[in-house]
Design the sequence.
């Protein structure tokens, strides 16, 4: 009986002295691969309410790539290649992982997976998000954290290669229309998994407003899940 009382006492004492770990203290730096499910959209042809999103009959899925560096800067990525870079440590050759969004830097690094007898990088892409072709990353405003929101505006100019109104070989569609996608991701107040693991993931809700496709802005919403696939907190670090 005394042993049971002692165990209960020690357990309560540990609970009292153990610091409460908040999400703000969790390191969320690194590369995140996410899955978005769009399950709500407004009906632009609805004569009574063309602005309020309603449940979609068939949800639409798409991937998203997000990176956060050591300074807390969050960016949307079009694609990224995971490779390794050689360096010398204590007179010995060693390797470190690198994340490349600039394809011109690929020859400076070495591959990490073997394919057809050659070592190549591991490449991730998200076809659902494109932006200015002169940029390798598009910055978000905000931070990754419980209850926090990150936002960005994605612009597709009239001449952008993936503008949906543009057709290279059609004489009437040599240029498109200016399109803007205002995207926001709001994180849930809870987290899942070990923050120190590359399998750490986050969930939340996504909202998007698209102007330029229709005279009435298209509003969509849904849920997302982000999984950290690399803890490397620098992009294009080849030096």
Sequence:
């Amino acid at each position: 009986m005394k042993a049971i009382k002692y165990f209960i006492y020690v357990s309560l004492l540990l609970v009292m002295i153990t610091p409460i770990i908040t999400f703000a203290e969790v390191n969320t730096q690194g590369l995140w691969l996410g899955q978005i499910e769009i399950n709500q959209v407004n009906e632009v042809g609805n004569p009574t309410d063309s602005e309020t999103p309603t449940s979609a009959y068939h949800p639409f899925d798409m991937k998203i790539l997000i990176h956060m560096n050591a300074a807390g800067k969050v960016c949307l990525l079009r694609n990224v290649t995971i490779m390794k870079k050689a360096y010398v440590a204590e007179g010995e050759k060693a390797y470190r992982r690198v994340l490349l969004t600039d394809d011109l830097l690929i020859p400076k690094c070495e591959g990490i997976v073997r394919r057809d007898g050659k070592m190549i990088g591991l490449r991730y892409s998200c076809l659902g998000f494109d932006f200015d072709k002169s940029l390798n990353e598009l910055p978000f405003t905000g931070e990754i954290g419980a209850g926090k929101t990150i936002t960005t505006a994605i612009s597709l100019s009239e001449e952008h290669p993936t503008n949906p109104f543009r057709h290279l070989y059609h004489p009437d569609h040599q240029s498109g229309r200016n399109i803007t996608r205002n995207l926001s991701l709001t994180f849930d107040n809870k987290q899942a998994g070990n923050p120190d693991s590359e399998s750490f993931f986050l969930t939340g809700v996504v909202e998007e407003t698209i102007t330029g496709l229709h005279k009435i802005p298209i509003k969509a919403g849904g849920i997302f899940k982000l999984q950290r696939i690399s803890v490397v907190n620098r992009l294009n670090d080849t030096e």
User: Anything to note?
Assistant: Residues 23-77+131-230 form a domain with the Porin fold (CATH 2.40.160). The first strand starts at residue 30 and ends at 42. The chain is about 5% helix and 45% strand.
